[in-house]
Amino acid sequence: MSQRIFGVVLLLACAGLGIVAWGYHAPFSYEPVGPRAYPLLLLTLMGLGAIYLLIKPSSSVSQDDEPPLDRHVVRKVASCVVIFAVYAALFEPLGFIPASLIFGIAMARLYEGTWKTSVISGVVLAVGLFVLFDKILDVPLPLGILSSLEI
């Protein structure tokens, strides 16, 4: 029941924030899609997650089945925060693709992916997101150490 209540609250928040984001227009244009596309995309994804919480069948899992907040879980959360901080620090100097590659591999390894799948998913993540944002959405991303490959 608490998941359904959370789903309703999240859906209402997404709708309200979506209305606010829809009316946002920057006084200057720095990219073709504009600044409102990202919040609207995120709010859409969050709204779909909220709808899923509302319509999914209820589970028979009790609250006692939740994993405890032990040292292992806290270490993963702290590692995730450190990986995000390293990603933010390396984003400009290394560029989007190398920083995202390192980020993708580190996150996959953090959640026990094998080296092979971690490297493959890191490459797909970095190159795929670069193509999506830089080429399709025309959002300029830093190339960093790969700037000599710019076409």
From TrEMBL:
Residue ranges crossing the lipid bilayer per the database entry: 37-55, 76-108, 114-133
Residues of the signal peptide: none
Keywords assigned: Membrane, Transmembrane, Transmembrane helix
InterPro entries referenced in this protein's UniProt entry, alphabetically: DUF1468
Keyword NAD appears in the UniProt entry: no
UniProt-listed Pfam families: TctB
Domain DUF1468: 5-142
Coiled coil regions, renumbered to chain: none
Protein name stated in the entry: Putative tricarboxylic transport membrane protein
Species of origin: Phytopseudomonas seleniipraecipitans
Lineage of source species: Bacteria, Pseudomonadati, Pseudomonadota, Gammaproteobacteria, Pseudomonadales
